[in-house]
Amino acid sequence: MNKGEDWTIEGVRDWQSLGEDADEREVTAALAWAMLGIGIGEISEKTFSKVVTRLREMEEVNGCYLRMRAEDGSFPLVPIHSDAIYRRIGMRARVSPKTDQQFRAMIKRDRLQKELYEAERRGESA
């Protein structure tokens, strides 16, 4: 990664084609943000499973990172598909790594905050 870059796809097979397609650029940018959230700085064969697992947990608790055009013209938030993540093996991002313990604690905290927020919206007392 060059100085000043927050993320790069230069290590991805046929990375130039990802930059030529607007939808692919959206996926890449969303995945860069997701990597920051999950605390994993590289997508590789070795980290792929952990990236997908952590991303699904983050999406479940905090919502999705990716907006894609729907047939009705809207831009809903949607999950980043595993195939799209695998396509980006070689992608790297400058992130603060999170150990499994740190990630678990963060998810636990976020889940609790979500539950409290939802209870408040329903008018329940904590």
Protein architecture, described:
The protein is mainly alpha-helical. 53% of the residues lie in helices and 6% in strands. The chain has helices at 15-20, 22-38, 48-62, 82-87, 100-122; strands at 7-8, 66-67, 77-78, 92-93. The strands form 2 sheets. It has a two-stranded antiparallel ribbon. It has a two-stranded antiparallel ribbon with strand order 2-3. The N and C termini lie far apart (46 Å). The mean pLDDT is 93.
Strand order of the largest sheet: 1-4
Beta content comes to 5-15%
| Rounded radius of gyration (Å) | 16 Å
Overall, the morphology is: globular
The helix content is: 40-55%
> Which quaternary structure do these chains form?
single chain
Order of helices and strands: EHHHEEHEH
Q: How many beta strands in the DSSP annotation?
A: 4
Average residue pLDDT: 93
Q: Give the helix/strand class.
A: mainly alpha
Are there runs of 5+ residues with pLDDT below 50, and where?
A: none
Mind summarizing the main beta sheet? Answer: 2 strands, antiparallel
Concise structural overview:
This protein has 5 helices and 4 strands, in the order βαααββαβα. The strands form 2 sheets. It has a two-stranded antiparallel ribbon with strand order 1-4. It has a two-stranded antiparallel sheet with strand order 2-3. It is mostly helical and 126 residues long.
